[in-house]
Amino acid sequence: MPLLHHEPQGGVRSLDELLGIALALEQEAVRRYTQLAALMDQRGETDTATTFRALIAEEQDHVQAVDGWAHSLGRPAPDAPAFLWRLPPELAASWEELTERTRLTPYQALSLAVVNEQRAFAFYSYIAASATDEPVRTHAEALAREELRHAALLRRERRKAFRRERGRAEHKPTRADTPAELERLAAALLAATAAEHGALAARLLALGDGDGAALLTRIAEDERALIPSGSGAAPSQSAAPDTAPACLRAAVAASERLAEAFGDVAAQATDELVLTESLRLQEAVVGHLALLAERTDAAS
Where do the Ferritin/DPS domain residues begin and end (predicted)? Predict the structure, then answer.
């Protein structure tokens, strides 16, 4: 499973189990974001600290929502500590590694937060896919979508941090107000990104990284398959980097731009069809980012 080295231990057979896992995950997020907000405050990074405090408030709302969910189902509030062992170990390990660093930039802090939200998304997606109980499946899918929304928010904040560190201009959000506008936008963005990933795959193959080339070829094919039927674009291509790690970094950057664009559209959508489709496209791209993160980890 992308970003998780091991499948979650045991299946989730009841809403009581899912409630306990969800509460444990939300409380752990509150604790970790509190640590990161304090670290950013200590380093004078007030914008990033504010981002984490906003996430703390939202996660605390989720803690209350899980308690309310249990009450509405006529169940007692879950004992969250009893479910900590069910959480992916990659989450705790990566948080510990990050907070122990003597030097930590806002970009690094937000990057790890993005990855861990993607891990939570993958975790809930696995629970939903393997659930035999319909209420467990539907509620796990809802929780997965919420983690995906958090990842999109953090990804935008990370790009702001990237620009601040390099003095770049503020990002202008991508917008599509109607399904037709989104179709045209998606066709252009997906075609351009598929072409970029295809060129990077060819470069990786020439550099002797067959596994990386195969992954990027697969991602490019997936992106072309997502292009609306009958749509097309003539994308421009730039020179590929000279090393395999640089190629992988460029591939990640291309997918991040694509995910950010669809996230922008979803955040501003007033049309339900635009919202649903932009989230579907963003979810597919986040899946590609998870695969690329896994490949980057393996290559390093």
Answer: 8-67
Phi-psi sector, 230: left (phi>0), alpha (psi -120 to 50), beta: left
Residue pair 159/48 in contact by the 8 Å Cβ criterion: no
Distance separating alpha carbons of residues 193 and 172, to the nearest angstrom: 19
Q: 74 to each of 15, 26, 66, 83, how far by Cα in Å?
A: 11, 21, 12, 20
What's this model's pTM, rounded to 2 decimal places? 0.57
d(CA 298, CA 292): 10
Contact 4, 88 (CB under 8 A): yes
Class of domain 15-168: mainly alpha
CATH of domain 179-298: 1.20.1260
Is 179-298 the same fold as 15-168? yes
Residue bearing tokens 């007030």: 46
The values of phi and psi at residue 198, to 5°, are -65, -40
Burial group, residue 124, by CB count within 10 angstroms (0-12, 13-18, 19+): buried
Q: Which residues contact 199 (CB under 8 A, 6 or more apart)?
A: 237, 238, 240
Residues 134, 124: Cα–Cα separation, whole Å: 14
pLDDT per residue as tens digits for the range 133-176: 898 899 888 888 888 777 777 777 777 776 676 655 455 678 89
